[in-house]
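Input chain follows. Return structure tokens only.
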Amino acid sequence: MQKVKDIMTQDIITVTPDMEIVAAAKILMDNHINGAPVVDEEGTLVGILCRDDLISQQKKLPLPSFFIVLDGLIPLTSTKHLEKEMAKIAATTVAQAMTPDPITVSPDTLIEEVASIMVDRKIHTIPVQDEDGCLVGIVGKEDILRTLIPRK
């Protein structure tokens, strides 16, 4: 059975939390990658920035729905959710747009497990950390798909 270490990309392209969104988007586009780990000055993984996070900036501001009861307004969505959406739309730095505390896998995780995580959680890119918490690779849906193509 194949493991993440057999298919992961070890040459990792990263971004930093203080990087401007435009610069980060250019890195993703220029390298034809869906996402990049966000690392702090010490190289510690603090988040992940994916194209979906950047596309969120192009969304319309979601107007909250309300239910009226006895002349009182009851929101149908949480204000915390609305605030999170607004923050993503208005983000100017990676820290404001990224997904903090991303799901990670180890190099010894089975590919089938990674595929399940990707499908169940709707994730396209997963950082790979060793037992010491060091970032050692990244695995994406394209890496999983490559395992389906017979080698010559």
